[in-house]
From TrEMBL:
Keywords, alphabetical: 4Fe-4S, Cell membrane, Electron transport, Iron, Iron-sulfur, Membrane, Metal-binding, Repeat, Translocase, Transport
Residue positions binding [4Fe-4S] cluster 2: 369, 398, 401, 404
GO CC annotation terms, alphabetical: plasma membrane
Gene name of the encoded protein: rnfC
Boundaries of every 4Fe-4S ferredoxin-type domain copy: 350-372
Species the sequence originates in: Velamenicoccus archaeovorus
Cofactor(s) of this protein: [4Fe-4S] cluster
Assigned EC number: 7.-.-.-
One annotated GO molecular function: electron transfer activity
Principal location class: membrane
Protein name: Ion-translocating oxidoreductase complex subunit C
The organism's place on the tree of life at top rank: Bacteria
Keyword Protein biosynthesis in record: no
C-alpha cells in the first residue's frame, strides 16, 4: 500500500447538502452485482411515488429498484449507463410534488425491537440495499452467511482520493450509523465489531468513538494508504488475518460492510425507506463549488455537476467514482446509481493522458500490489492472448485498485487490460 495525493481538502469540510429535485430520472435495471431485473412493474404513463418498487426479479443475485421521485413513467428503454455503456432503464418525469409512497412510514420503537433477524434481512432485501462502497453486492445475501461470522468490520476507510462522502456521513450521522450497525449485528451475531477509519479523518474518528460509547466495539484507526479500504486490506489491517486467494471474507468468518450501507440499513428499518438516494462527492479542479450531495438515484450526472459549478474550465475527463477505481463517462447524461460514491470533473493536470511505453522491469507493480500478484506478468500473459496463464497468475484475485498502473514508469495500461480480460474469462473465453 502507498500514500498517494488525496485531494480531499476540496470537500472534507463541506457538510452534506440535499441536491435539487431532478426534473427527470433514469433508473437502470442493473445497479447491483448480479443479473438484470426482469420483472418490471410499471409502463409508460403510470404514476409513481418516491419509494415505489419499480422492478425486481424472482431468483438469482439481484436487488430491486425504486422510484426516486414522484411523477409519470415516460418509457422503459435503453439509456446510457455509467458502467455498462447502455442498459434497460425506467425514465420518470417529475411532477414536482415529490410525494412519498404510502408504505414509507416510520416504525415505532416497539416494532423495531420486535424485529427478528429474518425480518431485518427481508427489509434489507425489499429496500434494494447493496454495498455502497462500490462493490454493489446485494446486502441481504451478505446478511445470510453460510457459516458463523466472528468479526464484523464497518468500513469507513474511504481511501480513494477526492471522496469524502463516507467521512461526512460519519461526522454528521454517527448515531444513525451506530443504530445501523446494531441492526446488522442482530442479524449475524458477531463476537466482535470493528469500525475502521483512516487516520486522515480525525473528526469522523472522534464522532464514531463518541457514538459507539460503551458498546464494547473497537474503533480502529488505520494508517492512511491506498488501497486501505479494500475488503481484504481492511481485514488484514484490523484483524491481522488474510483472506486466502480465491476465497471471500465470509470463508474466514468475517463480514465487511461500508458505513453508507449500514446507514441505508438504518433508514430502511427505522423509516421503511428504500434505497433511492445516497451521499456522493462531486469534486475536481474544474468545479468552482465541489460538494458532498445527497442525490436522488437516476439524476443525470450533468445536473449534479451544474449544482457544483460553474465549471472553471472544460473537464478533461468525467469519472464516476474515485480516480483510481472509478469509470470514465462517455456522456454526462448517464444517471447516478446505487454504487456512485462520487463524480469527478478532472482537468488536464489531474488527468494526464500518458502514452503507454514498454515495461522496464522495475518491479514497482510487484512490490506494491496489495494482493501480492505480479501485475506485469499478468499483463504480458493477456497481451499474448494467454488468459489461461493469466488465471494461473491469479488475475481473478485482482481487486482492480489501479495501483500497478498508477506506479508504473512505463505507464502500462495494466488495470484496463486486467478488467477487460476478467470480463472475457467470466464469459468463458480463456484465450
Ligand atoms: S494487479 Fe490488481 S490488485 Fe494488484 S495492483 Fe494491479 S489493480 Fe491492484
Ligand atoms: S511497474 Fe510497469 S515497468 Fe515496472 S515491472 Fe511493472 S509493468 Fe514493468
Amino acid at each position: 500500500m502507498v500514500r498517494i495525493e488525496e485531494h480531499k481538502h476540496l470537500t472534507e469540510n463541506k457538510p452534506i447538502e440535499q441536491a435539487a429535485l431532478p426534473r427527470r430520472v433514469v433508473i437502470p435495471l442493473v445497479q447491483h452485482l448480479g443479473k438484470r431485473l426482469d420483472r418490471v412493474f410499471v409502463k409508460a404513463q403510470d404514476h409513481v411515488r418516491r419509494g415505489d418498487c419499480l422492478a425486481t426479479s424472482d431468483k438469482g443475485v439481484f436487488a430491486p429498484v425504486h422510484a426516486s421521485i414522484s411523477g409519470t413513467v415516460k418509457q422503459v428503454a435503453d439509456f446510457p449507463h455509467p458502467v455498462f455503456g447502455f442498459c434497460r432503464a425506467i425514465e420518470i418525469e417529475s411532477d414536482g410534488k415529490d410525494e412519498a409512497a404510502e408504505s414509507m412510514k416510520p416504525r415505532t420503537a416497539g416494532e423495531i425491537a420486535s424485529l427478528t433477524a429474518a425480518d431485518i434481512r427481508t427489509i434489507v432485501f425489499e429496500s434494494g440495499i447493496v454495498g455502497l462502497g462500490g462493490a454493489t453486492f446485494p446486502t441481504h445475501i451478505k446478511l445470510a452467511p453460510a457459516r458463523p461470522i466472528k468479526d464484523f468490520i464497518v468500513n469507513g476507510a474511504e481511501c480513494e482520493p477526492y471522496l469524502t462522502a463516507d467521512s461526512r456521513l460519519m461526522i454528521e450521522r454517527s448515531l444513525q450509523i451506530i443504530e445501523g450497525v446494531k441492526l446488522v449485528a442482530r442479524t449475524i451475531q458477531p463476537e466482535n465489531v470493528f469500525i475502521a477509519i483512516e487516520d486522515n479523518k480525525p473528526q469522523a474518528i472522534r464522532r464514531m468513538k463518541e457514538a459507539a460509547g460503551s458498546l464494547g466495539w473497537h474503533v480502529v484507526v488505520l494508517k492512511t494508504a491506498y488501497p486501505q479500504g479494500g475488503e481484504k486490506q481492511v481485514i488484514k489491517s484490523c484483524l491481522r488475518r488474510e483472506v486466502p486467494p480465491g476465497k471471500l471474507p465470509f470463508d474466514i468468518g468475517v463480514l465487511v460492510q461500508n458505513v453508507g450501507t449500514v446507514f441505508a440499513v438504518y433508514e430502511a428499518v427505522y423509516f421503511r425507506k428504500p434505497l433511492y438516494e445516497r451521499v456522493m462527492t462531486v469534486s475536481g479542479a474544474c468545479l468552482e463549488n465541489p460538494k458532498n450531495l445527497l442525490a436522488r438515484l437516476g439524476t443525470p450526472v450533468k445536473d449534479l455537476l451544474e449544482q457544483c459549478g460553474p465549471m472553471t474550465r472544460e473537464p478533461k475527463r468525467i469519472i464516476m467514482g474515485g480516480p483510481m477505481m472509478g469509470i470514465a463517462q462517455f456522456t454526462p447524461e448517464a444517471p447516478v446509481i446505487k454504487g456512485t460514491s462520487g463524480i469527478l470533473a478532472l482537468d488536464e493536470d489531474e488527468e494526464k493522458e500518458q502514452e503507454e511505453s514498454f515495461c522496464v522491469r522495475c518491479g514497482q507493480c510487484v512490490e506494491n500490489c496489495p494482493i501480492g500478484l505480479n501485475p506485469g506478468l499478468i499483463a504480458l500473459a493477456i497481451a499474448k492472448g494467454r488468459l489461461d496463464l493469466a488465471q494461473e497468475y491469479g488475475i481473478m484475485d485482482c481487486i482492480e485498485c489501479g495501483l500497478c498502473a498508477y506506479l508504473c514508469p512505463g505507464r502500462r495500461h495494466i488495470v484496463q487490460a486486467i478488467k477487460a480480460a476478467k470480463i472475457k474469462i467470466r464469459k468463458g473465453k480463456t484465450t
